[in-house]
Design goal:
Length: about 160
């Protein structure tokens, strides 16, 4: 087992001394995740290994760590429902959304993809994902900007498929 020793500038050295007593099921669950400490003033986040380090495990128990690979199926389904809700916005509003979040070099083609996805039954889900993700992004959740880009990629893939 590992002990984390703090040295200057938030760098860590792992020593094989610590003995963390965690149930095997919990240890397997923690190994699957990708834990991070909150972002500091330099916009950096330290990676955590709660299955190895007692310090990281205690931070996990206190709820300080955020899991990048969330294994909570219930939360995933709820988030998916939010993004998959049917919503239609006027084309000019869609254009402003795309111009706001996509680089100007790719904005026209992205807008075109989303318009085509809006009008095709098999690709409408990507359109809904983009609109819902953008509206959440507008409220301050910066991570939804990536979901918007992924929705455009999904639209491209769905429009290429022959159904």
């Amino acid at each position: 087992y590992w002990e984390v020793t703090n040295i200057p500038e938030n760098n860590f050295i792992l020593n094989q001394n610590d003995n963390i007593q965690t149930p095997e099921k919990k240890k397997k669950f923690l190994k699957k995740g990708l834990g991070f400490y909150p972002v500091d003033e330099r916009d950096c986040s330290l990676m955590a290994s709660p299955h190895r380090s007692e310090k990281d495990f205690l931070a996990y128990k206190k709820g300080i760590l955020r899991n990048l690979l969330n294994d909570n199926r219930k939360e995933q389904k709820e988030e998916r429902k939010k993004l998959d809700q049917a919503i239609i916005v006027p084309d000019e509003t869609l254009r402003s959304y795309v111009n706001d979040i996509i680089d100007k070099d790719f904005a026209y083609s992205s807008y075109d993809l989303l318009i085509r996805a809006k009008n095709k039954k098999s690709a409408k889900l990507a359109y809904y994902n983009f609109i819902n993700a953008y509206q959440i992004y507008e409220k301050g959740d910066e991570s939804m900007g990536n979901i918007c880009c992924m929705a455009i990629d999904l639209a491209r893939d769905l429009l290429r498929k022959k159904h």
